[in-house]
Amino acid sequence: MTTFRAETAPGEQPPPDAVAPRDSTPQAPTSVARLNDTIRQFVQTWGSVWVEGELTAWDVRGSVVFGQLKDVGTDAKLRFRIWSSTRERLASDLSAGDRVIACVKADYYPRDGSFTFTVSAMRHVGLGDHLEKLERLRSQLRSEGLFDPERKKSLPFLPHRIGLITGADSDAEKDVHRNAELRWPRVRFRTIHAAVQGDRCVPETIAALKVLEADPEVDVIIIARGGGDAQSLLGFSDERLVRAVAAASTPVVSAIGHENDHPLLDDVADLRASTPTDAAKRVVPDVAEQLSVVRDLRARLTRRLTDRVAADIRQLEHVRSRPVLRTPASLVMSRMQEVELAVARGRSLIDRLVDTDARRTGELRAALRALSPASTLGRGYAIAHLADGVIVRDAHQAPVGAGVVVTVARGSFAARSEGEVVERSDDAPAI
Question: Closest by alpha carbon to 55, among 102, 10, 23?
């Protein structure tokens, strides 16, 4: 149990007739003023304390900032204020969602019993370490091929429905909707709000991405934020979010709205848009431009068809202007005499060839007949041959009594040899 000392600050007088808090009893209670003054004196002994947490509120009221710090990982919170003299020394990009370390001094106000902290210094926590880790992660993901252009998916020409992940009531959401509807009035969205900085950024964005991935009507997903400093963009370089986007089957557009120190989401997304407005222009075609393109194409097609038909008509007229096509019969008539002469020459040539071949055939027939044994037999000669068919060429082949068959020009007859009659003269003609 804490005991408060009833000491009075120099130059101050304790409340009259007030018992010190440590000496209070039901019969002699202390006063509220004495208790508050005692608490204030005790709090002032704490001095300044360095504390780390997330900015969950950042309310600028004139020259004073009223804010709130939340403990990372728990729900513990403390309220603070920053005087203008201190604010001038702080970074100008501090805002809600940033993770910071601050030097605070407790203040307790006896008048109303309020308790707050005054900030004398504040800066982003470990930004340099975060950026160093980010570059190492960037190199690792690049080596894995997650940044390769070949793996990036093409965006549909006209998406059926656009998935949008952005902060609630943010300018980024309004910019995407307004510019997309200006370009294509009938465009449809499915918008899921998520924290765009702080500890809730990564899990809420991943959850929204999964929901849109599961929607078969969503053809492209835009993750939009209205820019920011390097600290507030750290969530979009988280490895969990980057790998979830790389694994998505639906094309993802990164529209964080910044130019320098771009997060890893830009590298792994299928398309990087410089701003949410640029994302709307890249995802949705301009209906006016498309109608203009259609009109231009129709005009070009009409000109091409007209020119082609005109050229074909001119060529047809040129062909028809030739004499042979004006009077087709003239071509036949001019060739008729040539055909008749060719037929006559062919007939004459054939007749000569037939006559020549006929004469040659007759000569060959006569020569053949002259050399034929039948012609010899016709001149009175005969052929004798024995019963076994051997032709008798010598008289000794047909001794006396031998049977022979004699062939003459007209038929054959049998005979019997009487032996050699006379000696054969060498001048006797041979058959």
Answer: 102
| Token pair of 251 as six digits | 């094309």
**Torsion sign (Cα): 285, 286, 289, 291:** positive
Q: Which residues are within 8 A (CB) of 177 and not within 5 positions of it... i.e. 6 or more apart?
A: 164, 189, 280
* Tokens representing residue 185 in the block: 């009035």
Angle at 353 between CA 351 and CA 358, to 5 degrees: 95
Give the residue ranges of DSSP H helices in 84-200. 84-87, 127-143, 171-183
Pairing of strands 64-70, 77-82: antiparallel
Place of tokens 């076994």: 388
Interacting residues of 199 by C-beta distance below 8 A, sequence separation 6+: 54, 72
d(CA 52, CA 134): 21
Alpha helices in 184-274 (DSSP H): 201-213, 239-247, 264-268
From 128, 73, 69, select the one nearest 101 (Cα to Cα). Answer: 69
CA distance 118 to 105: 5
Q: Which domains are present in the chain?
A: 46-125 (2.40.50.140), 140-285 (3.40.50.261), 374-416 (no CATH)
Q: How many angstroms separate the CA atoms of 261 and 275, rounded? A: 14
User: Which residue, chain included where needed, has tokens 């209906």?
Assistant: 287
> pLDDT tens digits for the chain (431 residues)?
334 444 444 444 455 556 777 878 887 888 888 888 888 888 888 888 888 888 888 888 888 999 999 887 688 889 999 998 888 888 877 887 778 888 999 888 888 878 889 999 888 776 656 667 788 888 999 999 999 999 999 999 999 999 999 999 899 999 999 999 999 999 999 999 999 988 899 999 999 999 999 999 999 999 999 877 666 788 898 999 999 999 999 999 999 876 555 789 999 999 999 899 999 999 999 888 888 899 999 999 999 999 999 999 999 888 878 777 777 777 777 788 888 889 999 999 999 999 999 999 988 888 887 777 777 777 778 888 888 888 888 888 888 888 888 888 788 888 888 877 765 555 555 54
